[in-house]
User: Fold this.
Amino acid sequence: MNCSWLIFIVSLPTQNATGRMRVWRAVKALGCGVLRDGVYLLPNRKEFRQTLQNQAEDVISGGGSAHVLVLESENLDQQQTFESLFDRSADYTKLVETITQVSQTNFQSEGVDKLQKQIQRLRKAFEAIVLQDFFPGAAREQAASALEDLEHTVNEQLMPDEPHAVNRRIKPLRLVDFQGRTWATRQRPWIDRLASAWLIQRFVDPDARFIWLAEPGECPADALGFDFDGALFTHIGAKVTFEVLLASFGMTKDAALNRLGALVHYLDVGGIPVLEAAGLETLIRGMRQRWPSDDDLLAETNKIFDAYYQAFSGNDV
Assistant:
C-alpha cells in the first residue's frame, strides 16, 4: 500500500539557541516523529505541509537551512517503522492509570465542582493525545471508554437528575403531530438540553414554548418532556437526547446536524473527541453565568447553534 510522508530537514547555526528552541517546540507540538537530530517525520497532510513550510521559512530567515520533502513509500516494513514513531500507547496507558485513580476516590467527599474540574483536565489530556495520534488503535478506544465510564459514574452519583439511558427502539415520528406544543425540561440547561431546545425550535416545532422544571416530577401532563428520566425524549442506548430527536424525526441524513450531534454527545457524556468541543464548552459556560434566565440563555445560545450549523453546512453567506 502506498503511503505518503513529509520529511522536515532543518539545520541552524549553533549560536542560534532561540531558533533551535522555537523549532523544537514546533515539531513537538505537531507530534513529529524523530528520524535523527534535525530530521523529522509527519504523515503527508495539507495542514502539516503548510505548517512545516512556515517553519522552514522561519529557519531560513534566521540564517539556517530547511527543506520539506515528500516521500512516497510502497515498502510495508518502512511504513510500519514510520508508523511506530507515532505510537501513543504509552501516553494512553498513563492516562488510563490516572483515570483509574480518580475513579477509586470517594466522590461524595470530593464534591461536584472538584470532580468536574478533574474530569475536564482528563478530557483535555485525552484530546491532546488524540491530536497527535495519527494512527489510532485499541489504546485510544480503551482510554475513551475509561473516561466515558468515569463521567457516567460521577454523573450517576453526584448528579442524579441527569437522565439514565434506557434501551428501547426509537420510533419514527411525524412533525405534523408536534406543532405548537409546550416542551419541558430541567432548569439551568446544559449542552444537551440547550442543543435539543434549539433543534426543536429550528427543525421540529417553530412555535414551541418551553418551561423549565425545578423537578422532573413537576412536568405538566400535556407537556412534551425531554432530557430527564421518564421524558418522551431522553437518552436511549448510546444516544443523548439531541441524537434521539434527530433519529425520531428522520433528520439523520443532515451531515451538519450529525456533526452537531457528535459535538453535543462528547460534551454531555464523553466519548470520541470533537475538535470544536473546547470552544463550545467555554462559550456555554460563560453564557450560563451571564444569563440567569433560562429563556434568555436559550435565546442567546440559539445564535451559537445557528452559527455552528451554518459552518458545518458549508454555506457561505
